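User: Can you predict the 3D structure for this chain?
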Amino acid sequence: MASGPKLVLVTRKTALEELLERHTTVSRARFAIEQAGGEFEPYQAAHDTYHAALDRIRASLPREQRVQQVDRSFLPNFLFGDDDIVMVVGQDGLVVNAAKYLRSQPVIAVNPDPSRIDGVLLPFSVGTARLGLARVLAGTATCEHVTMAEARLNDGQSILAVNDLFVGARTHISARYRIGYRGASEDQSSSGILVSTGAGSTGWLRSVYTAVAEIAAALGCREAERLREEYRFDRQARELVFAVREPFVSRTSQASIVFGRIGEDETLTVESKMPGHGVIFGDGVEEDYLEFNSGAIATIGVAARTLRLVCSSEVLPVRDDESHRSTKPAAMPVQALTDERR
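Assistant: Here is the predicted structure, written as structure tokens:
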């Protein structure tokens, strides 16, 4: 009889499967793609590779292992058990998706297709997935505790992010709010506020640094090169970085609080001045948002919860029994992580 922790296998639909939801059959999907001037074969090849990987992983698991598979679309309503072990098979963004619904469950992240997927958050291959599970079951696994960001509203709602939070307007209109940081506050009008974790520091935050660096270089600033290179920080570091996007100075708006670090014991407060269209969303998923309109106050800081990412033997992380407050350099470089772009 099967016993011990349950393995939750988190998967997602392939691009071909999503096409079939619209076009019903493979032949119709092929026709639609080729009529638009595209190539159908890459969709089929990626689909075949992904499902072959899933078949190999399932076949490699111990016979007595309890397994439950859940698609990404069901994650918001899926109840993870405290003793569950989670195995994510897909793109880096799938790990990000799953992390928001976990507490302290270990995550074995598997790259099913290294030729197409960068795998920054996917230390395991299809061939080593079983080894990761064996180590977790034996209590010998090492883990990274990846820092997450959290925004809490004054009505009790909250949202988590592995990469970054965005606070602003849902459309291209200016976001209006009052920002508070380290005892200072001011009214602002901008394109929104980006709050990044270390895991997301090479994504959206990097684009902010790049823009500033290029402007500085054009103005002859000698610090431009340093700005281009110093965007990254450790994804286990218990801190966040915020940047105000395109702040506008007027009679009613200022721009002196536009960048800063939020330590573990600090917060950034933002009070909405927007009658409508205000939002807070995480990790580039605009469909999953909190309304942020007049009267709403957001308190943003380092989340108590972390992504407990099981590491392969090639990675030298902080051991699971060590403090996750460590701010030592990450064991492997981090690149841009978004929900749909990987």
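The chain is about 25% helix and 30% strand. The radius of gyration is 22 Å.
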